[in-house]
TrEMBL record:
<dbReference type="Pfam" id="PF08327">
    <property type="entry name" value="AHSA1"/>
</dbReference>
<comment type="similarity">
    <text>Belongs to the AHA1 family.</text>
</comment>
<dbReference type="InterPro" id="IPR023393">
    <property type="entry name" value="START-like_dom_sf"/>
</dbReference>
<dbReference type="InterPro" id="IPR013538">
    <property type="entry name" value="ASHA1/2-like_C"/>
</dbReference>
<protein>
    <submittedName>
        <fullName>SRPBCC domain-containing protein</fullName>
    </submittedName>
</protein>
<feature type="domain" description="Activator of Hsp90 ATPase homologue 1/2-like C-terminal">
    <location>
        <begin position="28"/>
        <end position="162"/>
    </location>
</feature>
Length: 167
């Protein structure tokens, strides 16, 4: 069945941003929990056939999430999110980047600022994420790495997980 939920992926090359508007068929608290708890993130935060695996997570301002996206052969691709602002169930801001297994950032790959907001939309939830890169070159790097395709698959994983969690 085709997903009829809102999904916008808007690239603004003048502002070096990607804006993602994504609707989920679940209440805001549950969608928030899926974005902020490592045991739930590990169940959806990677495009198929990859899986996510948390090394460490401290969801608080100044905290971070270090995780790997693991391919079917076991190869790990590490990333980290550093939380800069948290407003429970309404939104958060963070800096993301690629890193090694120890959480040391890879300076060769782009880092971005993410601002995510969560809004009630009838019985559903709308999550808007604005991702800002330092330069057009950084923005184009992640687009060429397949960010839209990977994010589309990843958010579909969240749809599937929410179906199992809703009562």
């Amino acid at each position: 069945m085709k997903n009829t939920m809102q999904f916008d992926f808007i690239v603004d090359k003048e502002k070096n941003t990607i804006t993602v508007n994504r609707e989920f068929a679940a209440g805001r608290q549950l969608v928030w929990d899926c974005h902020t708890k490592s045991e739930l993130l590990d169940k959806w935060f990677a495009p198929k056939p990859f899986t996510a695996r948390t090394k460490s997570m401290s969801f608080k301002e100044g905290g971070s999430w270090i995780y790997a996206m693991v391919d079917p052969e076991g190869q790990e691709f590490w990333a980290r999110m550093d939380y800069t602002k948290i407003n429970p169930i309404d939104g958060y801001s963070l800096l993301d980047g690629f890193c090694n297994k120890d959480g040391e950032l890879n300076p060769e790959l782009p880092r971005a600022r993410w601002v995510a907001t969560f809004k009630d939309l009838n019985q559903n939830t709308l999550v808007q994420t604005v991702v800002t890169y330092n330069s057009l070159a950084d923005l184009e790097t992640v687009i060429n790495m397949g960010m839209k395709e990977g994010l589309t698959m990843t958010l579909e994983n969240l749809d599937d997980l929410l179906l199992t969690l809703k009562k």
